[in-house]
């Protein structure tokens, strides 16, 4: 590009370049650090706090059903300790949720609606493809059953998950997660 | 071998090893069964589920009251109701339901749960209810809580029974395992013992074999030695006689007499050799009879010395007698002098001409001691322990005459007389042989296996000096 000798032409050119750069920055869909989550519109289903970088309410990341549905879909067929037979679960992967909030910790503390509390190592999510289920056998999980969110492990796929010490990680009526 | 047979032999060992392996396998199976039983304890989970039902029923009652007091339905009321329902759902499905059925609590809980669900509208509209209706809700929830409480009770008792049973089973299993281990240990000890015995038996037979080989070898050496020692004098005599035959006419009288005398000497030596061998055999067979008499020991020894000096005019033998030696002793003189002769001839043979041989006779407590000392080549340290063995000839004596019977025989006779014969080094050079014979009651071994009337008993022939 030939640089014009005219001073007016230079200023206009520089300004154009700067504007384009600004626009690109603002409009960029790429996730940078501290890039905020969209705000929830519906009822809050899940709150994530602690060592996370992406938030939408101060230090917290609040998710409604629609936001959770935006996470990559996950399915899981497995039997459980409290039901008979094999159940079909749909939902999202816990590891995807951790990525969505840019979690940077070793453990999560999961809280259920009835004040049940349990610590789960984050390594579980990579190792076992743990699913947070929103639907079971085609039906949306409700608060009057084990919903709205139920942490489900692929129990039938790994022998070690038959161990009692994994049973108490199946948190039903999950509503809050703190990353540590 | 016999020890191995004694403990059941080879079939016994095999049976023990099979039993051992079987028991080991059984113990392992039992152990892993016990291991399995430890897992899968679902009862604890149920108790928690049941108590949850009770808690949520009570919590709902609280929220219900609060909502009525506040005059409006609260989100907490709705939440408490939903959660209670979720507990009811869990109690009504899957393993939880079966457990409640088993402890007989399911029907009641089911009934009340249905009643609660029927009242859903009333519960959620808390503030709008009349006092009576509210009271009924309270009672319903209280009943629900109470039934869950009862179910928890029953579940706990049931669990304790189960736990007790499991403990019993575990105790039984552990006892079985302990017993099996004990049996294994016993069998192990048994098998080890068998092995040790077998090894020892093998060791023993190896030692025996070695000893047999040694004896055979010694015998072979003896036979070779003897045949050589017989042949030499015999051939000397033969050649002498041959010469006599050839030169009978040209020899003068003195020459003939000289040759004859030499041959007779040789014959005497040969006879002595044969006697020595035969005596040794007889000693072994216990065929020597002891004939004690009252004897002047000193005179007998002096006589023996005189004989030897006559046979070897160039040698000197001195005798030294202690004052305390009694002049009369009860002893078999022939046997005694047999020993003394052997010691004297050895002393002369194994010491150089010109050196002195001394005989010392003294008394030591209840024993008569005769010591024969020379200034000769002595006996090497390594051979001293073996010098009284039959057929033993020291390295130094290989070139000299003898078959190695003398000392063995002498020692045997000494012991037959109730005494002993031993050797010690002499400084600066030489040997001392010490003969000890008990005086007085003179215990001696009776001829063991042959009755006195037998014609086989002989007196030891006295061989000439």
Tell me the helix content of chain B.
55-70%
Distance between the termini of chain B: 53 Å
Overall form of chain B: rod-shaped
- Most extensive interface, chain pair and sizes: A-B, 15 and 19 residues
So what's the overall shape of chain A? elongated
What Rg of chain B is obtained from the alpha carbons, in whole angstroms? 55 Å
Estimate percent helicity of chain A.
Answer: 10-25%
Quaternary structure classification:
heterodimer
What is the strand tally of chain B? 7
Class of secondary structure makeup of chain B = alpha+beta
Major β-sheet strand ordering of chain B: 2-4-5-7-6
C-alpha-based Rg of chain A, rounded: 22 Å
Mean pLDDT over all positions of chain B? 83
Plain-language structure description:
The complex is a heterodimer of chains A (180) and B (465). Chain A has 180 residues and is of the alpha+beta class. Chain A has 5 helices and 10 strands. Mean pLDDT of chain A is 85; it is low at 1-5 and 27-33. Chain B has 465 residues and is of the alpha+beta class. Chain B is built from 12 helices and 7 strands. Chain B has helices at residues 2-6, 9-38, 43-70, 75-91, 94-102, 106-118, 120-124, 131-246, 253-285, 297-311, 333-349, 406-416, and strands spanning 293-295, 316-321, 329-331, 356-364, 367-374, 420-425, 431-438. In chain B, a hairpin with a 5-residue loop joins strand 6 and strand 7. The relative contact order of chain B is 0.07. Classes of the chains: A alpha+beta (180), B alpha+beta (465). The interface between A and B is medium-sized, with 15 and 19 residues.
Secondary-structure map with pairings?
The complex is a heterodimer of chains A (180) and B (465).
Chain A (H helix, E strand, L loop, with lengths): L6 H21 L16 E7 L10 E4 H6 L2 E7 L6 E8 H7 L6 E6 L4 E5 L1 H6 L2 E6 L2 E2 L9 E3 L11 H4 L6 E6 L1
Parallel strand pairs in A: 1-10
Antiparallel strand pairs in A: 1-2, 3-4, 4-7, 5-6, 5-10, 7-8, 7-9
Chain B lengths: L1 H5 L2 H30 L4 H28 L4 H17 L2 H9 L3 H13 L1 H5 L6 H116 L6 H33 L7 E3 L1 H15 L4 E6 L7 E3 L1 H17 L6 E9 L2 E8 L31 H11 L3 E6 L5 E8 L27
Helix pairs in contact in B: 2-8, 3-4, 3-8, 6-8, 8-9, 9-12, 10-11, 11-12
């Amino acid at each position: 590009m030939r640089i014009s000798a005219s001073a007016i032409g230079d200023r206009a050119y520089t300004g154009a370049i700067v504007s384009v750069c600004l626009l690109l920055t603002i409009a960029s869909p790429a996730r940078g650090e501290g890039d905020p989550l969209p705000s929830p519109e519906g009822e809050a289903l899940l709150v994530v706090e602690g060592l996370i970088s992406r938030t939408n309410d101060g230090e917290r990341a609040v998710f409604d059903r629609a936001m959770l549905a935006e996470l990559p879909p996950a399915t899981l067929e497995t039997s459980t300790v409290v039901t008979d037979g094999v159940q079909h679960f749909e939902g999202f992967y816990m590891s995807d949720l951790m990525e969505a909030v840019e979690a940077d910790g070793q453990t999560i503390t999961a809280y259920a609606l009835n004040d049940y509390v349990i610590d789960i190592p984050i390594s579980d999510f990579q190792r076992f493809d743990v699913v947070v289920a929103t639907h079971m056998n085609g039906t949306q999980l409700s608060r009057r059953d084990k919903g709205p969110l139920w942490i489900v492990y692929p129990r039938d796929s790994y022998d070690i998950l038959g161990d009692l010490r994994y049973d108490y990680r199946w948190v039903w009526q999950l509503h809050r997660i703190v990353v540590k | 071998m016999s020890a191995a047979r004694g403990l059941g032999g080879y079939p016994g060992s095999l049976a023990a090893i099979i039993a051992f392996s079987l028991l080991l396998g059984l113990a392992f199976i039992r152990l892993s069964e016990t291991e399995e039983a430890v897992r899968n304890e679902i009862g604890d989970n149920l108790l928690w589920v049941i108590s949850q039902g009770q808690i949520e029923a009570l919590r709902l009652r609280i929220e219900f009251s609060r909502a009525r007091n506040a005059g409006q339905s609260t989100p907490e009321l709705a939440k408490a109701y939903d959660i209670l329902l979720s507990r009811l759902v869990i109690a009504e499905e899957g393993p939880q339901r079966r457990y409640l059925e088993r402890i007989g609590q399911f029907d009641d809980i089911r009934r009340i749960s249905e009643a609660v669900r029927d009242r859903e509208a009333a519960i959620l509209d808390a503030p709008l209810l009349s006092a009576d209706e509210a009271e009924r809700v309270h009672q319903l929830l209280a009943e629900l809580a109470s039934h869950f409480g009862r179910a928890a009770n029953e579940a706990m008792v049931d669990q304790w029974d189960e736990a007790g049973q499991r403990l019993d089973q575990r105790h039984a299993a552990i006892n079985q395992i302990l017993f099996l281990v004990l049996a294994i240990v016993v069998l192990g000890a048994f098998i080890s013992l068998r092995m040790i015995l077998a090894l020892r038996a093998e060791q023993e037979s190896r030692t025996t074999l070695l000893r047999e080989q040694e004896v055979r070898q010694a015998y072979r050496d003896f036979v070779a030695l003897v045949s050589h020692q017989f042949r030499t004098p015999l051939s000397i005599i033969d050649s002498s006689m041959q010469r006599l035959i050839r030169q009978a006419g040209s020899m003068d009288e003195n020459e003939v007499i000289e040759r004859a005398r030499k041959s007779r000497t040789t014959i005497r030596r040969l006879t002595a050799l044969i006697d020595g061998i035969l005596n040794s055999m007889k000693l072994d067979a216990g065929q020597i009879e002891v004939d004690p008499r009252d004897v002047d020991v000193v005179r007998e020894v002096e006589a023996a010395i005189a004989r030897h000096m006559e046979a070897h005019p160039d040698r000197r033998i001195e005798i030294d007698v202690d004052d305390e030696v009694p002049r009369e002793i009860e002893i078999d003189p022939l046997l005694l002098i047999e020993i003394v002769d052997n010691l004297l001839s050895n002393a002369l043979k194994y010491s150089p001409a010109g050196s002195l041989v001394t005989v010392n006779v003294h008394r030591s407590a209840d024993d008569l001691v005769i010591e024969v000392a020379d200034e000769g080549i002595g006996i090497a340290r390594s051979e001293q322990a073996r010098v009284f063995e039959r057929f033993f000839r020291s390295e130094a004596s290989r070139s000299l005459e003898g078959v190695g019977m003398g000392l063995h025989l002498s020692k045997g006779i000494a012991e037959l007389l109730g005494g002993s014969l031993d050797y010690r080094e002499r400084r600066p050079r030489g040997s001392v042989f010490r003969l000890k014979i008990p005086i007085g009651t003179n215990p001696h071994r009776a001829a063991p296996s042959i009755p006195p009337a037998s014609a086989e008993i002989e007196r030891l022939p006295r061989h000439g000096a």
